[in-house]
Structure to design on (165 residues):
């Protein structure tokens, strides 16, 4: 059983912030029982503070990823898919030696999503169903290359005009 020390606290803090493990798994990794973990959390202010800081850092990273994903869906983005096919080499005596037979790179443009644009235009407010009141929409200029997206935006603008008018 591991003893409480700053090195152990930092290791636990890093594992919590990484967000890849449950508390049970973290305890197993560092050699501490769950009971001891929660006892330290309750009785050692420095440990509780380190856990809170790790959780805050983890949440901030998650929010940043969410903003990046939302931005991609709002602006559109390119998606690149690479496919490599291997076959056994005819030049080698070893049947396990592989060579590249085919290397295919596909690039696809993902158009902006109307629902995300609508969410952004509403300022993130969902109306009475979500418990928030609709906020006035501020004017925004959006330029798009896709004709389909352009039509979708025009329909969206008409809907918003009917709701507010």
């Amino acid at each position: 059983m591991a003893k409480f020390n700053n090195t152990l606290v930092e290791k636990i803090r890093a594992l919590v912030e990484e967000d890849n493990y449950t508390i049970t798994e973290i305890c197993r990794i560092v050699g501490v029982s769950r009971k001891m973990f929660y006892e330290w959390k309750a009785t050692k202010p420095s440990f509780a503070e380190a856990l809170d800081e790790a959780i805050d850092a983890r949440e901030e990273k998650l929010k940043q990823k969410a903003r990046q994903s939302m931005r991609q869906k709002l602006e559109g983005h390119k998606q690149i898919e690479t496919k490599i096919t291997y076959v056994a080499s005819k030049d080698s005596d070893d049947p396990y030696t592989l060579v590249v037979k085919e290397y295919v790179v596909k690039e696809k443009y993902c158009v902006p999503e109307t629902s995300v644009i609508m969410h952004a235009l509403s300022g993130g407010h969902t109306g009475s169903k979500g418990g928030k009141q609709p906020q006035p929409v501020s004017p925004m200029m959006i330029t798009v290359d896709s004709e389909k997206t352009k039509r979708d935006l025009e329909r969206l603008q008409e809907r918003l005009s009917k709701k507010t008018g």
